[in-house]
Amino acid sequence: MLNEPSVCWQNERYLQHNRPLDQENARYLLITMNQVLREHGIVMMPMFGTLLGAIREHGFIKKDDDVDVVIYAKDIDAVFDLRPELEKYGIKLHCYVLPWIFTFEYKGMTCDIYPLYDTVWPWTNHFYLLFEYYISRSFFDQTEDYVLFGETFKIPAHPEILLKYLYGKTWRIPQNVKPKIESRVFFWRYAHRFVQKCIKYVKKHCSNR
Q1: pLDDT value of residue 1
Q2: Of 5, 121, 176, 200, which is least surrounded by CB within 10 A?
Q3: Ranges assigned E (strand) in 42-150
Q4: pLDDT at 174
């Protein structure tokens, strides 16, 4: 696997908004990524604003500026290995901040790929870890087929419930909002971090006794 370059944290890709979404190039990027990954047995699902646009608008959200998808963490290496094949279609690896996100680009349009990680703590084993957020496995352990732009995609099961979970009850109404995560998810997130800090403290101060 590629190492994480520290410069990515300062990369303008993560500090500034992209250019407004070019519908044609964004469709090409999303469809081609889906076709190439599917041919190699990799499941890629629209997520965040892309999933919201697919279900609510049957296309892209007007104010969106990139494409968002998720894959299972086990497929990260396989996706990186597909770089030469993707480059034949003009799609190149743009930047990456592993383990949370990596980005492919086509003619100024970017596709952010978020891996879904299994959790290791007993109280979180019903969740996947997605960009530091815990989201129920029930959405991703089973998928649905969804036709978008004439292409069949895999999408999370019960997408309407997932979008309500992410964006609130008003997700069907266009507005400028970011995903909302329920308070209990933040509780488990910080509980997880607290336990990790306790383990590190014990190892550091008690290992030599």
Answers
A1: 39
A2: 176
A3: 44-46, 67-72, 92-97, 101-106, 109-118, 127-130, 133-136, 143-148
A4: 85
Report residue 92 as tokens.
């190149």
The number of beta carbons lying within 10 Å of the beta carbon of residue 75 is 20
- 22 φ, ψ (degrees, to nearest 5): -85, 110
- CA 95 vs CA 79, 85, 137: distances in Å: 14, 17, 28
Ranges of H-type helices in the chain: 12-15, 23-39, 48-52, 76-81, 83-88, 159-167, 183-206
Name the token pair of 206: 């008690």
CB 96 within 8 A of CB 36: no
- Both structure tokens of 192: 């997880």
Domains parsed from the chain with CATH numbers = 6-182 (3.30.460.40)
pLDDT tens per residue, range 174-184? 877 667 554 44
pLDDT(155) > 80: yes
Local structure of 117: helix, strand or coil? strand
Residue 176, token pair as written in the block: 């400028």
d(Cα 41, Cα 34) in Å, to the nearest integer? 10
CA atoms of 5 and 13, how far apart (whole Å): 14
Q: Is the CB of residue 144 less than 8 Å from the CB of residue 192?
A: no
Q: Does an H or E element contain 153, and which?
A: strand 151-156
User: Given this model, what pLDDT does residue 99 score?
Assistant: 73
Joined together, the tokens standing for residue 178 give 């970011």
